[in-house]
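Why dTDP-4-dehydrorhamnose 3,5-epimerase? Reviewers of the renewal asked for a concrete example.
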Amino acid sequence: MKVTETHISGLLIIEPKVFRDERGWFTESFNQQKFEQILMERGLKAPQFVQDNHSFSDKGVLRGLHYQKAPYAQGKLVRVVQGRAWDVAVDIREGSDTYGQWFGLELSGENHKQFWIPEGFAHGFIALEDQTQFLYKTTNYYHQASEMTIAWNDETLNIQWPLHEIERIKTNDKDRNAVALNRKVI
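Here is what the prediction returned.
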């Protein structure tokens, strides 16, 4: 398993080993013991996952930037099992040296990469192909009253979404009406 640390403390890219042969491929997509070891080696707290989520999106669907306020904050281990998505995490940890900074990467059914996003981050993605299926484990249950949304196109964040690949962005009202990070109450 390959682990890459990003420029934002706590955000990790995890690439499980993929065994390929003429029949196809096999990968161990999650192992609690190995995941805990990865985090503990970096001085990070190992979470307990309580919920799995699965979304299906066609090309151009943009979801986010979402997070839940404490005490319902969620860490997420995310991956794409079919299709491709540009995935983004924004640091919203008060007092963090990287507050307001973002990190993005492409997740796909082909590259098998996973992205660990601990509590204290807003998260969003845009589907780059039709029939993109996104799976993620969360460290807390969904709590609608605690859910918050930051504008995906917040000019102060200046996220470099790969919009050149998209003909039309599709969002819902919640994401269209989100406000900038500097106006958010975290």
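The chain has a mean pLDDT of 95. This is the kind of structural detail the renewal will allow us to pursue systematically.
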